[in-house]
């Protein structure tokens, strides 16, 4: 069943077994993990880095930016987590996925170059 709401919990370490409908956030390890919102049971890891995901905590709910696209999973689900709500987006085509991967690689290459300096 597709979730429409998701809660969150701040943890030090991500537990071995996770409940659906909860985003486990570890500031310690700079990562967030949740069970795919489509209900397929796959674990989705969203690293929190300047070139991966940003976590926004407003004191009550969390948002993840950008969207979560589970292209490597069979369900291929695609959604936004916005203020504790799961906003479903359409699945992308192969071309769109490839384009996004290329953009992502370019972004990361630029980021790591800038970290090393000129
Ligand atoms: Zn899924």
Molecular structure report:
- The strands form 2 sheets. Strands 1-2-3-4 form a 4-stranded mixed β-sheet, with no helix packed on it. A 4-stranded antiparallel β-sheet has the order 5-6-7-8, with no helix packed on it.
- It is built from 1 helix and 8 strands, in the order ββββββββα.
- The chain has one helix at residues 94-116, and strands spanning 7-10, 22-26, 31-35, 43-47, 54-57, 62-69, 78-82, 85-88.
- The protein is α+β, with helices and mostly antiparallel strands and 118 residues long.
- It is globular, with a radius of gyration of 15 Å.
- It starts with 6 loop residues before the first strand and ends with a helix.
- The longest helix is centred in the C-terminal third of the chain and has 23 residues, at 94-116.
- The model has no long low-confidence stretch (mean pLDDT 94).
- The structure holds zinc ion.
Q: Which small-molecule species are bound to the chains here?
A: zinc ion
Low-confidence stretches: none
End-to-end distance: 50 Å
Which strand order spans the largest sheet, edge to edge or round the barrel?
A: 1-2-3-4
* Helix segment tally: 1
Radius of gyration: 15 Å
Mean pLDDT: 94
What's the order of the H and E elements?
EEEEEEEEH
Beta-strand segment tally: 8
Helix coverage percent of residues?
A: 10-25%
Question: What structural class should be given to the helix and strand makeup?
Answer: alpha+beta
Approximately what portion of the residues adopt beta-strand conformation? 25-35%
Q: Mind describing the biggest β-sheet?
A: 4 strands, mixed
Taken from the alpha-carbon principal axes, the silhouette is globular
